[in-house]
C-alpha cells in the first residue's frame, strides 16, 4: 500500500494514543490546510480549534446530528457529558481510529475518518447513544439513533453492545439490532445486517466474536454466535452458529474452510479459494 509523504503514526507495536495521537492529528491537519487552503475553516473548526480528541469528537457529533428538533448546542452538551463521565469512550474512539487507519487502504492519514468517513463518525455517535441508554435516558438515545440513521445511513440500536477497535468500511446501510453484541477488533463492510428472524422478543440478535471479518452485504440473523477470528463472505446469509477461525459463505451460509489467517479482521482478505469451476477443457 503506497502512502503519501505525510507524518505517520508509530509502529503497530507502540500505537499512538492520548496526547501523542492528538499531536499527530494536529500535524496532519496543518499539512492538509497547506495543501488545500479552501478547507481551512472546516479543518480549523473540526480539529485545530480543539485541545483534545474528545472535544473534536463532541463537536463533530453535534455538528452532524443537529436538526430543527435538537440544536447543536444541546447535542454538544450531551456529548461533553458523555466523554467527561465515561473516559473509556475516548479510548474506544482512539482504537476505532487506529482500526480504520491500519485496515483501510484508502486511509492515509488519521484526519480522514475524523473529518470524512461516516462509518467512524456513526460509530462514535452510537457510543454516545449507548451511554444515554445505560444512563436511563432512553428516549434521547432513540433520538440519537434516529439522527444517526438519517445522517449517516447507519442504524445501530443504542442497547446493542459494540467493542472497540471496530471498523465499518463505507458503512452504508449497516443495521445492528437491539440485543446484538459485537466484540473487539471486528471489521465489517457496507450493507451488513446483524438482525433478528421475526417478531420474537428477548435475546434475538447475533453475538459476533473478537476479530471477525464480515463481508459486504452479509446478513447474520438470530440469536447465534460467530466465533472469534472467523470470516463471513460477502452476500452470505448466516442462520447458524459459526465456529471460531472458520470461513462461511452462501445462502444459507455453509462452512467452506478455515479463516485463512490468524487475524482476518486485520488482514481484510475477502477471497475464498475455489476449485473445480473450470470447464472440462481447462477454460
Describe the protein's architecture and organization:
This protein is an alpha/beta fold and 283 residues long. It folds into 2 domains: 18-153, serine acetyltransferase, domain 1; 160-272, UDP N-Acetylglucosamine Acyltransferase, domain 1 (3 Solenoid). It has helices spanning 18-35, 40-48, 53-65, 72-85, 88-103, 111-116, 118-134, 138-152, 264-267; strands at residues 154-156, 161-162, 167-168, 174-176, 181-182, 187-188, 193-195, 207-208, 213-214, 219-221, 225-226, 231-232, 237-238, 246-249, 254-258. The chain has a 6-stranded mixed beta sheet. Strands 1-4-7-10-13 form a 5-stranded parallel beta sheet. Helix 1 packs antiparallel against helix 2 (40-48). The chain is globular and about 50 Å long. The two termini are 32 Å apart. 44% of the residues are buried.
Amino acid at each position: 500500500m503506497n502512502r503519501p509523504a505525510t507524518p505517520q503514526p508509530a509502529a503497530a507495536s507502540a500505537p499512538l494514543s492520548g496526547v501523542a495521537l492528538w499531536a499527530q492529528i494536529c500535524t496532519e491537519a496543518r499539512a492538509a490546510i497547506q495543501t488545500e487552503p479552501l478547507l481551512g475553516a472546516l479543518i480549523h473548526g473540526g480539529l485545530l480549534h480543539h485541545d483534545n480528541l474528545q472535544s473534536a469528537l463532541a463537536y463533530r457529533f453535534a455538528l452532524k446530528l443537529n436538526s430543527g428538533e435538537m440544536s447543536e448546542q444541546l447535542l454538544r452538551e450531551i456529548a461533553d457529558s458523555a466523554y467527561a463521565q465515561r473516559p473509556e469512550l475516548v479510548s474506544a474512539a482512539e482504537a476505532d481510529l487506529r482500526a480504520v487507519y491500519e485496515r483501510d487502504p484508502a486511509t492515509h492519514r488519521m484526519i480522514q475518518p475524523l473529518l470524512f468517513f461516516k462509518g467512524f463518525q456513526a460509530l462514535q455517535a452510537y457510543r454516545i447513544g449507548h451511554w444515554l441508554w445505560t444512563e436511563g435516558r432512553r428516549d434521547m438515545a432513540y433520538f440519537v439513533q434516529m439522527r444517526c440513521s438519517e445522517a449517516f445511513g447507519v442504524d445501530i440500536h443504542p442497547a446493542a453492545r459494540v467493542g472497540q477497535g471496530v471498523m465499518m468500511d463505507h458503512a452504508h446501510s449497516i443495521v445492528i439490532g437491539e440485543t446484538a453484541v459485537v466484540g473487539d477488533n471486528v471489521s465489517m463492510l457496507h450493507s451488513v445486517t446483524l438482525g433478528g428472524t421475526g417478531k420474537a422478543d428477548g435475546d434475538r440478535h447475533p453475538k459476533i466474536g473478537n476479530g471477525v471479518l464480515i463481508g459486504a452485504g452479509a446478513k447474520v440473523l438470530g440469536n447465534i454466535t460467530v466465533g472469534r477470528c472467523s470470516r463471513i463472505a460477502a452476500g452470505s446469509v448466516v442462520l447458524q452458529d459459526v465456529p471460531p477461525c472458520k470461513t462461511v459463505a452462501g445462502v444459507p451460509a455453509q462452512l467452506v474452510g478455515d479463516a485463512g489467517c490468524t487475524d482476518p479482521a486485520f488482514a481484510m482478505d475477502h477471497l475464498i479459494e475455489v476449485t473445480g469451476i473450470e470447464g472440462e477443457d481447462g477454460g
